[in-house]
Amino acid sequence: MSNTLREYAIFIQKVREYANSGNDLTTAITETIKYCEMNNVLQPFLKEHASEVQNMIFTEFNIDTAKKVWQEEAHEDGFEEGIEEGIEKGIEKGIEKGIEKVLSLLENGLSIDEIRKKLGKDKNEDGDDKQSADGQKTQHN
Q1: Residue 28, burial from CB neighbour count under 10 angstroms (0-12, 13-18, 19+)
Q2: Integer Cα distance of 137 and 105 in angstroms
Q3: Is residue 77 included in any domain, yes or no?
Q4: Which pLDDT tens digit goes with each residue over 12-54?
Q5: 100 Cβ contact list (under 8 Å, min separation 6)
Q6: Is residue 138 assigned to a domain?
Q7: What is the chain's Cα-based Rg?
Q8: How many distinct structural domains can be found in the chain?
Q9: Residue 60 within any structural domain of the chain
Q10: Domain that holds residue 19
Q11: Contact assessment for residue 41 and residue 20, using Cβ atoms and an 8 Å cutoff
């Protein structure tokens, strides 16, 4: 690896270290430039182009951060859409299977009341026995 490339890697590593230790990005870049000047890392280049480097690195890190945020948001949106789609498909599949079961029972000659009993639908939503048309309660076995 060339010396310049090695020094650039040190520079980027230091920016990340300073940023990860709680500094804002501007401070992290400024501290990295100071570190590099004191430790002879990219020194000739930084003496001439420190402000340009600071602007370039700041822009690069902001773009990387923005990309990460966009990716996370897209992942969350996709996850939510997946859940919604899964629920919809589950409901559709449940209705489809219910219809198939009822049709099968009808084909086997069962009446609607017999199908209700067979499927456990002879109670109303409150759990009380349903009453038949003549006011009689439906019997449970």
Answers
A1: buried
A2: 23
A3: yes
A4: 899 889 989 998 888 888 898 899 989 999 888 888 877 787 7
A5: none
A6: no
A7: 35
A8: 1
A9: yes
A10: 3-90
A11: no
